[in-house]
Amino acid sequence: MRIALLEDEQDQADLVNAWLKAAGHGCHVYALGKDLVRDAQRETFDLFLLDWEVPGMSGAEVLVWIRANIAERVPVLFVTARQSEEDIVHALSGGADDYMVKPLGRLELLARIDALARRLRASPGQGEDLLEYGRLSVDCRNRQAKLDGQEVAMTQKDYELAVFLLRNIGRLLSRGHILEAVWGQSAEINTRTVDTHVSRIRGKLQLTPENGWRLSAVYQHGYRLERVAAAAAQ
Amino acid sequence: MSEKLIVTVDALIATLVPRFLANRAADVDRVRAALAGADFETIRAAGHGMKGAGGGYGFAEISRLGAAIEEAALRRDAAAVSGLVADLEKYLGRIEIKFAGEH
Fold first, then answer.
1. Given A79, B15, B28, B67, which residue has the most CB atoms within 10 angstroms?
2. Which residue of A has its CA nearest to B24?
3. What DSSP designation does B90 have?
4. In this predicted complex, what is the ipTM?
5. Does residue B66 belong to any structural domain of this protein?
6. pTM of the full structure
7. What pLDDT score was predicted for residue A123?
8. For residue A139, what are the domain limits?
9. A with B: how many residue pairs have Cβ under 8 Å apart?
10. What is the mean pLDDT of residues A52-79?
């Protein structure tokens, strides 16, 4: 997952960052709420981890911004040393999906992140080894994509990009998000690479309206793969 | 001479621990300086930070002392803060780190 962490205490940020990276997540750390908000306007994330007490725009204010400005219901987990019942109620009523009191336990944090990801983005095909959408099927165990039962020859990155998009149907995904998910957070690759690969898989997997798909570029944002009624495409 | 206190820490964060402990030692100086100026907000913030991070690094005692420092600062109880920061200094001096998985 691509996670945005709001945390101004360097030691705490380093700790959570290390845990998330070891678990295979990408983590973007922000010490200021306004910087997270700035990036969230052009980048997409799978989950927000918010501390409450940070300088300037507080975690609670960032939460209000997220719920008012991000159409997609991205999970928000508050991680804070504030532990009064009033604080917890305030965060959950304000739109947070979960709340953890510091000091954090690594295993519990990772388990709660996984639970949020499962609960809030459950959609057909997510997390399963076999993705099936009519003519198109993807066998994730054997890393094979098939159209009408015939294997489609694909490069490793094209395959991984296809699976990432298929596991996130309906979501707007920024180019940065796609790059991280498929090429890794440290990869120094031009975002135009994403455009090239998207174009390629659109052709190879016939992700077109005639076949019940719309894979659209959203100006200055990224891409969204959607299912559409094939009849409506005409 | 104070007895050494062995604290077992997750090897995953081995490279982060020295800086974490150095920052806590700096907190001792910072809190004492703030106490001299009756700057209880600085003391509260330092305690709050320790409370939040200590346990995650494997130092539950640092979280406990941090919480106590934060509460003492909220009460503007200089004597309590002074005693607690002395306890923190003593604790930091006794720590011997063992990383989980070491032999």
1. A79
2. A11
3. H
4. 0.91
5. yes
6. 0.86
7. 55
8. 130-233
9. 55
10. 93
Is position A125 within any domain? Answer: no
Statement to judge: residues A96 and A152 lie in one domain: no
Q: How far is CA A212 from CA A132, A137, A172, A220, B23, in A?
A: 13, 14, 18, 25, 57
The answer to whether the Cβ–Cβ distance between B13 and A15 falls below 8 Å is yes
Q: Taking CB atoms and an 8 Å limit, are B23 and A106 in contact across chains? A: no
Residue A37 is encoded by which pair of tokens? 């908000």
Could you report how far apart the first and last alpha carbons of chain B are, in Å?
Answer: 26
CA distances from B10 to A15, A47, A223, B56, B102 (A): 11, 25, 39, 10, 10
Q: Domain containing B21 — which CATH number?
A: 1.20.120.160
Q: What is the mean pLDDT of chain A?
A: 89
Q: Tell me the two tokens of residue B41.
A: 């907000």
pLDDT tens digits along A102-121: 999 999 999 999 999 887 55
Which of B12, B54, B60 shows the shortest C-beta gap to A18? B12
Q: Reading across the β-sheet that carries A213-218, which strands appear in turn?
A: A172-174, A222-227, A213-218
Any chain A CB within 8 A of the CB of B60? yes
Enumerate residues 63 to 102 of chain B having a beta carbon within 8 A of any beta carbon in chain A.
63
Average pLDDT, chain B: 94
Contact, A91 vs A100, CB < 8 A?
A: no
